[in-house]
Amino acid sequence: MSYASSLYFTGTEIGLSLAGLVLLLVVAWTGAKSARVITILAVSALVGAIAFTASLPTGSPADGFNSAFGGLLRMDSFAVFAKILIYLATIACLIITPRFFEERDGYRGEYPVLMLFGAIGMGMMVSATNLMTLYIGLELSSLSSYVFASFLRSDWRSNEAGLKYFILGALASGIILYGMSLVYGFAGTTDYSGIRAAFSTHFPIGALFGVVFVLAGLAFKIAAVPFHMWTPDVYEGAPTPVTAFFASAPKVAAIGMLVRMALVPFGGEVEAWRQIVIFASIASIVVGALGAIGQQNLKRLLAYSSINNVGFLLVGLAAATPAGASAILIYLVIYVAMTLGSFSALLMLRDKEGQPLETFADISGLSTTRPGLAWCLLFVMFSLAGIPPLFGFWAKFVVFQAAVQAGLVPLAAIGIAASVIGAFYYLRFIKVMFFDESKREPEQTSPMGHWVVLVVSVIVISPLGYFATPWLGSVASQAAAALFAVA
Questions:
Q1: Is the peptide bond before 226 cis (omega within 30 degrees of 0)?
Q2: What is the full DSSP assignment across 226-291?
Q3: DSSP H helical segments within 322-390, as ranges?
Q4: Looking at residue 56, what DSSP letter applies?
Q5: Helix (H, G, I), strand (E, B), or coil: what is residue 356?
Q6: Nearest to 41, CA basis, from 94, 84, 1
Q7: Nearest-angstrom CA–CA distance, 305 and 247
Q8: Do 75 and 9 form a contact (C-beta atoms < 8 A)?
């Protein structure tokens, strides 16, 4: 494939890189006063990236799936699906961010610029078909995330969260690199298709260790048990807009990277890693459900909710079928909507002095003081609990259906039983907001951008979302098929 074709198929990354560099120069010349304008321009660049990505032809097995630079990146239906979802989540996070920082440490233009560079890395993660490309994208995204966690320099909790995330993230990167070195040593190549071909003829025990180390490092990135320890502390300590970002766009990128890694280079050795994924799935569902029960801080509770949802996503991966991969993509769309809605509501929960309402005691009686916000939170929490007819029920249904079709009935049964436990702490929101006495008076107005993100999220997860299931199912199935067509 020519360099012109490679440049065309990586046009999204190139365009965002140029936009990020130009905006970085503007920030250097204008300082903090241009932060709002930089944010608007960054959102415009991401909208352009969505339009360009959606217009790309995704190819077929005959033409190499639009591979770029000798097979280092691949622009197939799976990559297009994941990238568009990543960019949409990043745009939503940029919309709800400015007010939070302007009222504290001051909003700086470096934030949206780092968002752009992080989006580039996340896009590379889901398109990578070579271990080296994957690692470059992973580190580009991670370096931005480390800065985000400690972006609020005047808050010691933010600084602590950034330091914890950096140290543990570096450890996970080392584990992934060590696993990659073992895989390369036994396969003789870093290319996904070459690794699969090498392991199809001979899969030594040393290669199995490499696969385990790679999957363990990726499990840290998605906050799966037992590599979840950092999540509650980082989610609580990081600024709330940053927590919303961590729980949405990077989660999509990490799950997409894990799914492609497991099903393409390691797809011929499913039985070698399926038990690991099943354990991580069950453990994440149970730990996420039980760990959240005793939480009083709302961000820590949502951190355990994130761990719980990762467990459900891994149910689809354990199936290791096109239906399982399709279910993961459908779940990610609904999960991102629920996550952005919940954190948008959290950013709107403030008292009259502008202090955040961060605990259950703070939001008691919210239905009498801010009924619109309380009802939106009710929809989000019922959807997270998987209560029909909200769209969150469909997300769980498709992953359990894929597991049953793959013969993993015990896994589906355990997941369904554990989801009942998880419903307890989601329903606790409803009990506190609608049946307890109000203790703190919240502010009565919120920025329009926050309302837009919250209302759109609520519409997506409402019963109206079921009208999109034929289209969403078709697109997700096409994206999942791209992973198995190269098997």
A1: yes
A2: TS-THHHHHHHHS-HHHHHHHTSHHHHHHHHHHHHHHHTTTGGGHHHHHHHHHHHHHHHHHHHHHH
A3: 322-348, 366-369, 371-384
A4: S
A5: strand
A6: 94
A7: 10
A8: yes
CA distance 394 to 465: 10
DSSP 350: B
367-403, pLDDT tens digit by residue? 888 888 889 988 998 898 888 888 989 999 999 999 9
What are the Cα distances from residue 83, in Å, to 13, 21, 30, 216? Answer: 10, 20, 31, 24
Kindly indicate the confidence band of residue 65, based on its pLDDT and cuts at 50, 70 and 90.
low
pLDDT recorded at residue 486:
57
Over residues 90-102, the mean pLDDT reads 88
Domain ranges of the chain: 3-486
A 10 A CB-CB count for 460 gives: 19
State the average pLDDT for the chain.
Answer: 87
Q: Are 162 and 102 in contact (CB under 8 A)?
A: no
Q: How far, in Å, CA of 69 to CA of 91, rounded?
A: 29
Task: Give 109's pLDDT tier (boundaries 50, 70, 90).
Answer: confident
- The identity of residue 454, as a single letter, is L
Which tens digit of pLDDT belongs to each residue from 290-311? 888 888 888 888 899 899 999 9
**Its pTM surpasses 0.90:** yes
Answer yes or no: are the C-beta atoms of 410 and 279 closer than 8 Å: no
Handedness of CA 234, 238, 241, 246 (dihedral sign): negative
Tens-place pLDDT, residues 249-290: 999 999 999 999 889 888 888 888 888 899 999 999 999 888
